[in-house]
Amino acid sequence: MLWTASLCLLWASSILCVPVNKQRQRLLLISFDGFRWDYDHDVETPNLDQMAKDGVKALYVTPPYLTVTSPTHFTLLTGRYIENHGVIHNMWFNTTTKEKKPYYQTQFVNEWWDNGTLPIWITAQRQGLKAGSLHFPGTASSYQGEVAMMRDVEPRLYNYKNETAWRENTDKVMGWFRDQDLDFVSLYFGEPDGTGHKYGPDSPQRREMVKQVDRTVGYIRSSAKEHGLAEHLNIIITADHGMSTVYRNGVVEEITLSKIPGFSFKDVSFYLVDYGPSGMLLPKPDKLEKVYNALKGAHPHLHVYKKEEMPDRLHFAKSDRILPIILWADPGYLINGYFPVQFNKGEHGFDNQEMDMKPFFRAVGPAFHKNLEVGPFETVNIYPLMCHILGIQPEVNDGHLNATKHMLVTSDSTKGTDTNILQNVFTGLIAVAGFLVLVFIVMISHKIVKNRKEDKRSDSSKHLPDNNSVKQTSF
Ligand SMILES: [Zn+2]
């Protein structure tokens, strides 16, 4: 009897505690580098428009500061502000040896990326999912000895604007989902950033490149269907930063540090300038105040901050890698060192409050509402959203699911989970009630049988000798 009861209870509790058997959600995160939030305003974008009808469109999103490629992409993958994840620049540097590595070479410097914060690929894999990445910044590095299960790093001198290669890369990723059974993939396209830099964000070349992006969005969605993935695949498309026109040809007074009275590169032991509108300086011992005082207020469009005085809203101070003096210029301006060496017509790296730095955001798939336009949010919030869709426990991060959960439907992903929990609880309660009824019936039956036996015994005991009667009583 007790053994049966224990088994019943174990069964009932196992139903109550069973892991949520939710429908499996897959997720593809796509970045089109430098796709500004309003790039679809002056170009026909039928595929992006269709995606907005079939899913969610945000007015814009706000990237973290510093608005450059590797740091902002690592925020997408980790949900951490740049000062917290430590990938503070596109360029790895060493202030002692004065060595610097450009963007592509920095992709292969493990210690630059593997800095205590795990990208979502590793977290997903540690929780039993399968992840991949194609060309996404950070893919080449390993993290605590682990890499994405499927990964593809672009070769040096890669042509980032070849539309045929874009389609091949798309099909490769869809093949990973279908044939390798991946749950999450991040996919990177290097445009329209390159075209925006070269020709400027207001150029016809940029508009043509946006059309190419739009065609590719259509191709991505049709490729998902052809690979039989449309029903379970969620697609998020966003970017790392926007783009702003650089003022030139004598229109403005350019910022060239060497021309600023009282400033000398002799007082600086290491510097990162000539890299768009941002810069960092490491003054020589006892020269910090001199350098700071010379630069502060020297140009009306140059912002100069000591690291510890950086505005909190920029979240760009805490990392040990950030140098003691930080510089940034207003939109339209660049920071030159000895003399101008930058000739791009478009740049990014400006304050993330500037509208020109805001990327676009679209999402479609079973987890998302249809035909919903939402207000802006910070890109740190994309990470907890992705973890939620995938059903994994996020690492410590700076985002909040509350900022994005209104984009999610209630049946398939999020509330699907709630519904399943309720179903499990209901089933469990039914099981417990059934068990109690069973126990009640068994007890009643036992009692009836016992009473009948006792009645029989009392009848027969009249005919038994006294010693047998004693034994029966002690039974
Ligand atoms: Zn970029």
Key attributes of the depicted protein:
475 residues; alpha/beta; Alkaline Phosphatase, subunit A; Gyrase A, domain 2; 8-stranded mixed sheet; 4-stranded antiparallel sheet; globular; disordered N terminus; disordered C terminus; binds zinc ion; Alkaline_phosphatase_core_sf; Ectonucleotide pyrophosphatase/phosphodiesterase family member 7; Phosphodiest/P_Trfase; signal; transmembrane helix
User: Which regions have little confidence, pLDDT < 50, spanning 5+ residues?
Assistant: 1-21, 411-428, 455-475
Placed side by side, the strands forming the largest sheet appear as: 7-6-8-1-9-18-2-19
The third-level CATH topology of the largest domain is: Alkaline Phosphatase, subunit A
Number of beta strands? 20
Small molecules in complex:
zinc ion
- In percent, how helical is the residue content? 25-40%
Radius of gyration equals 32 Å
Q: Which secondary-structure class do the elements indicate?
A: alpha/beta
Mean pLDDT: 87
CATH class of the largest domain: Alpha Beta
The figure for the number of domains is 3
Give the termini distance in whole angstroms: 18 Å
Characterize the biggest β-sheet. Answer: 8 strands, mixed
Strand content: 15-25%
Region (Disordered): 452-475
Signal peptide: 1-17
Keywords: Membrane, Signal, Transmembrane, Transmembrane helix
Transmembrane segments: 425-444
Task: Give an account of the 3D structure.
Keywords: Membrane, Signal, Transmembrane, Transmembrane helix. This is Ectonucleotide pyrophosphatase/phosphodiesterase family member 7. Residues 452-475 are annotated as: Disordered. Residues 1-17 form the signal peptide. It holds the Pfam family Phosphodiest. The protein has 475 residues and is α/β, with parallel strands linked by helices. It folds into three domains: 26-244 and 351-418, 3-Layer(aba) Sandwich (Alkaline Phosphatase, subunit A), CATH 3.40.720; 255-343, Gyrase A, domain 2 (2-Layer Sandwich); 420-457. It contains 14 helices and 20 strands. The protein has an eight-stranded mixed beta sheet with strand order 7-6-8-1-9-18-2-19, with helices on both faces. Strands 12-13-15-14 form a four-stranded antiparallel beta sheet, with helices on one face. α1 (2-17) runs antiparallel to α13 (414-460), α2 packs across α10 and α8 packs parallel to α10 (204-226). The longest helix is centred in the C-terminal third of the chain and has 47 residues, at 414-460. It is globular and about 90 Å long. The chain starts with a helix and ends with a helix. It binds zinc ion (ZN).
